């Protein structure tokens, strides 16, 4: 396992994060998954307040080794569906959700506390100030945000910089060869602000593992009949590259995401599956393979990305000597 820095914090985090969303109990298989990840050098465990019993299971698994892990959890989701103020990103829900998570996780601090989703009804300055107070109280070390527009995140971090508050260190998004929307605004914004990016659904709900490619494949998280021709084209490209490199399709899909500079969140249901996923960290994708994979997605940045890309190469805008300029 290799490591990178979390945003601009100096905290060392492993290339692959372990997703604990489906942990329903500390079963023998869940313990094997957790131990295998730790033995491979993984050090980030990601859960959330709304993931059912997951936080309690993670808290039990961390006993005796808590400080060796970067423990990440999220808030926003409701704690009580009958109480409107038991959800959202305002200070009241943040405070009560954080206390609930600390109890469930059996710890007195959270390493990385995520806003789970942008709440349109809460001003971002309310959230950033409440997050900063949690950091100053020592209950949270670093903060991040998941599932939010680029303009919200950039505005939040600019506000934090101006006011001396804790900025977001990480961004969490869905990202895979089947879903590349975040390349338009979110990934460029994250690079500009030095944010680490954690990616969920890197296997496209299992589609990119190739499990639905065979005739008569059984439905699981996805019904094979709902997979369109565009996605099947991408899967065929992934399978072709995997066959040539002698690795699995899942490893190719995860390795591609890592090559794009993100931290895939792997949520394996068995130790064997996790072992396969961890193998992605050793897969080197040749440039030719990357080109084939990305060509198969038929992805376009759209406006303004494509337009600005054309303008960047235009002597009509920047003059005849533009080719002599060494830019970024």
Q: How is this fold's topology laid out?
A:
Elements: E1 3-5, E2 12-14, E3 17-19, H1 28-39, E4 44-46, H2 54-61, E5 70-75, H3 91-105, E6 110-115, H4 124-136, E7 140-146, H5 150-163, E8 168-174, H6 186-193, E9 196-200, H7 229-245, H8 249-259, E10 263-266, H9 271-278, H10 287-296, H11 305-312, H12 315-318
Parallel strand pairs: 3-4, 3-10, 4-5, 5-6, 6-7, 7-8, 8-9, 9-10
Antiparallel strand pairs: 1-2
Helix pairs in contact: 1-9, 2-3, 4-5, 5-6, 7-8, 7-10
Count the E strands.
Answer: 10
Strand ordering within the main sheet: 3-4-5-6-7-8-9-10
CATH topology: TIM Barrel
Bin the helical content: 25-40%
User: Shape from CA axes?
Assistant: globular
User: Class by helix and strand content?
Assistant: alpha/beta
The tally of domains stands at 1
Distance between the termini: 30 Å
Ranges where pLDDT stays below 50 over 5 or more residues in a row are none
Rg is 21 Å
CATH class category: Alpha Beta
Calculate the mean pLDDT score and round it.
95
The major beta sheet can be summarized as: 8 strands, parallel, barrel
Number of helices: 12
- State the CATH superfamily name: NADP-dependent oxidoreductase domain
> Based on the structure given, which CATH architecture is correct?
Alpha-Beta Barrel
Topology as H/E string? EEEHEHEHEHEHEHEHHEHHHH
Strand percent estimate: 5-15%
